[in-house]
Amino acid sequence: MQSLYRYLPILDWGRRYDRAALSNDMIAAVIVTIMLIPQSLAYALLAGLPPEAGIYASIVPIILYAVFGTSRALAVGPVAVVSLLTASAVGQVAEQGTAGYAVAALTLAFLSGGFLMLLGVFRLGFLANFLSHPVIAGFITASGILIATSQLKHILGVSAHGHTLPQMLGSIVENLGQTNWITLIIGVLATAFLFWVRKNLKPALRRMGVPPLLADVLTKAGPVAAVVVTTLSVWAFGLDARGVKIVGEVPQSLPPLTLPGLSSDLVGALLVPAILISIIGFVESISVAQTLAAKKRQRVDPDQELIGLGAANLGAAFTGGFPVTGGFSRSVVNFDAGAETPAAGIYTAGGLAIAALFLTPLVYFLPKATLAATIIVAVLSLVDLSILKKTWGYSRADFAAVAATILLTLLAGVETGVASGVALSILLHLYKTSRPHVAEVGLVPGTQHFRNILRHKVETDPTLVTLRVDESLYFVNARFLEDLIQSRVTEGCKIRNVVLMFSAVNEVDFSALESLEAINHRLRDMGVGLHLSEVKGPVMDRLKQSHFLDELNGQVFLSQYDAWKTLTKPNRVQAAE
Amino acid sequence: MQSLYRYLPILDWGRRYDRAALSNDMIAAVIVTIMLIPQSLAYALLAGLPPEAGIYASIVPIILYAVFGTSRALAVGPVAVVSLLTASAVGQVAEQGTAGYAVAALTLAFLSGGFLMLLGVFRLGFLANFLSHPVIAGFITASGILIATSQLKHILGVSAHGHTLPQMLGSIVENLGQTNWITLIIGVLATAFLFWVRKNLKPALRRMGVPPLLADVLTKAGPVAAVVVTTLSVWAFGLDARGVKIVGEVPQSLPPLTLPGLSSDLVGALLVPAILISIIGFVESISVAQTLAAKKRQRVDPDQELIGLGAANLGAAFTGGFPVTGGFSRSVVNFDAGAETPAAGIYTAGGLAIAALFLTPLVYFLPKATLAATIIVAVLSLVDLSILKKTWGYSRADFAAVAATILLTLLAGVETGVASGVALSILLHLYKTSRPHVAEVGLVPGTQHFRNILRHKVETDPTLVTLRVDESLYFVNARFLEDLIQSRVTEGCKIRNVVLMFSAVNEVDFSALESLEAINHRLRDMGVGLHLSEVKGPVMDRLKQSHFLDELNGQVFLSQYDAWKTLTKPNRVQAAE
């Protein structure tokens, strides 16, 4: 029963559902629904799919997340970065506008959902940690630039293609002659309006005495206003006949039952992108969920979140959608509007279903330029190049990871960019730990403490070298220690004993064990003893399972002071300052 | 001048060269030369090249290593594992026996030499550390099995091909009908004789009163005896006319001047194998060099070794050779025979040059089966499956890395095997550090020490949680800490302060910094303070470069005891036992 509650969180909050929660959830649902209609159409456009796909992707996935997810406020659906990744992945296997394209998007959602489910069931959510914060920040920033650029063609009313910045810009410049001036005017005005709404409307409304929540809702409804005004203009002046591209016919229907294509070619081509989309979507979603949960001292379970998002994506795959995840802006609106339980999501789904059934004829004359404008304004808020400055000041390794991720995402595409960022941050981490800090220490006079001989005035002994290793020992730094000890011992002829102080060593892997054995043999060949001190319990347990301690050409001392007392008696001298 | 000595170690030992060293080096050179002649022919056969290539690869490379290398005893030339890797890489771009095959082998040596040089000049020798000891051990064992299997065809006198164990065995079984019985008899007798020599000759000679060094040399000369006897047999009984495959004509010549092929196709196809060969060769060589150096309290410089091995491979590329490295058995013989300086290598090269000029007609009738027997006996000593047992007892992660390396090397080939082993050991390490040990600690009564509340009887306070983090914080475990703190704090309603004890944290990267900021914000939202204690100097320096400390919803305490005194005053209670 306990585990049923874990896998079906709805059983937990559903039992305690009351009238107050119902009314709060309903209000939140209405607000979110209004905001989601233009957003869903826009992200479908970004993903290269027909507009209704965006609405379908927001109905069943929301309901499934409400059943399986653990966040109270997360709103699941199409988001900008995942839509871009979808366009990039599906564009490689099918032509936009064909039936194959839509099927490939379903397959991508299916694979992504399956992968998330697997991670959740096997509790492998930690894999998402391989995406470091700088890599994510760099990737989101570069994606924002790519997405905004990809929408320029709709603003200009030209056709263009490409998945990297140079390709897109080149293609736009090439076709600049086809610019449709009416489209451009609509696009520029809509963009300017939306920027103004985002930046100035809320303070203006507050000054006019509008209560904060309403001001917030009106601000978020900016895109709806832009949609209404531009749609009416196109209809009134017949601008579609003058070359303004419009959304056109959108079927009036509930989400259809669809089947993802599962041919081995298609699966093979989309598997890696699906894994990437899953992990990036999960990272975005879990960050939002944890931030919102903390505000109410609730918690989310990352492994159960994987199952919730997996279910949502599987739902998208069978109901005409495309890959989805928990979005930042819609979740914040949901939270701010007072959603108390995932039931708010279910009501939102209901609202969208009504829209899909009855409201789609209203967007027939909606210009694509308006949708492009809402996308541009939304994603440019993601672009934050300050991460470059912040990481530069903090750590050059992190800076290198951000810079490489941004550059490669822009110049070589989203998949290459994020994969290189991950590989680089792992390599840089391994490099850092490959040369651990090792301090030669001596006794602080009058105490039992040992400190770095380079920083402190300490007692030493010419026959004894004590090295404090400030890192776990494993294969990447095992040989470093061998080299270090060999070079330290060959430079001092009087050395008779080496002590390794293990107070900061949390692990000794098999490679490091073999290095310690090699060090032991070599020191024995030189007539030098090897000792250990302050070995932690778990490390000692491991060492006892090997023959190292039997063969050790020296002793293991509980404390470094014991080692000092035993090994230096006749030779102690005062250190030079 | 100092740096000239560093890059040209010959200037250092050359100045002090005297008559005693000369005579010792000469004796060692004669012994090594005799051993190297059959070995060179055999490894050329293994690499799929004509026999003279093995001798050429042992002349100029030895001289160049003597000039640039830092080991006094290392003997450079073709070795079994690198020859196998050569056959595998070159076999993918050219047909064995063609001119293109020989050129590709030169290209491989050139690329490998260039890559080693680059690593040496940029002091990137640490990259070799990514090969963990278990991966190397597994790879060498699997390679030994593959090499021995690849030589079975010469023992049976059948033709066979393939680069994986199933391919080779399948191919041999298919052609078993063509077995040449005389070849088989020669091969089996030679193999049995060599095994007997290796196992029993030395003790037998010692019992007969032969001095140890001479006994050792006679044992190592076993392959020479096998070569002489089988060559004479083939010549005397005309066995080559009865289908026994022989070495045949070998040109009488000094190493020729050759040029590696540098077409972009060839370079592209061989670049990755060349990198692999370089790193594996370097790892083998540096282990031998360090072991021998330690016996005389000398040291080798790993970065200069890269330059020495790089020069040797470039030399091989321009003089009709193939990739080389420092070999274990030849180096040990050189060392045991009393070589004092790299000059011994130069004399060995002279001996081999004389052999190349005058002795090659003597091996005309040498059966290939004899060479195959010497290879089999040599490489089976590399096969050591005990590594599986040893790592199983010590650590399951290391066991998984060994097992995967062995299986994939045998079943999918050498490159896949070693690459998978490296990837798996990195992933397992990241996994281990992704869930660091975090202990909740309390005060040991009557002291200022804090210990794990699960293991010790300590004082705690319901309003205070102190977590000791036993690992550096970086992107792989940053989110783990977020989850841990969030779940710990949400389960206790009285908690008002969280202290993170940083005594074992050697690094906080940018991802971990952002996680700490997120933890700080979330705890503030919950009305809980976040404090740090015992932060190390370098970590504190880093944190001061960020805004974290300004925004910290709490304090940084020098010692955990200070934190305890400040935060618990009114609430202290005795812990339940």
Automatic annotation (TrEMBL), chains A, B:
Major location category of this protein: membrane
Localisation: Membrane
Swiss-Prot/TrEMBL keywords: Membrane, Transmembrane, Transmembrane helix
Listed InterPro entries: SLC26A/SulP_dom, SLC26A/SulP_fam, STAS_dom, STAS_dom_sf
GO BP field: transmembrane transport
Topology in membrane: Multi-pass membrane protein
Transmembrane segments: 21-41, 53-68, 75-94, 100-122, 134-156, 176-197, 217-237, 266-294, 306-324, 344-364, 371-388, 400-428
CDD domains: STAS_SulP_like_sulfate_transporter
Domain named STAS: residues: 454-567
Pfam families: STAS, Sulfate_transp
Protein name (Swiss-Prot/TrEMBL): Sulfate permease, SulP family
One annotated Gene Ontology cellular component of this protein: membrane
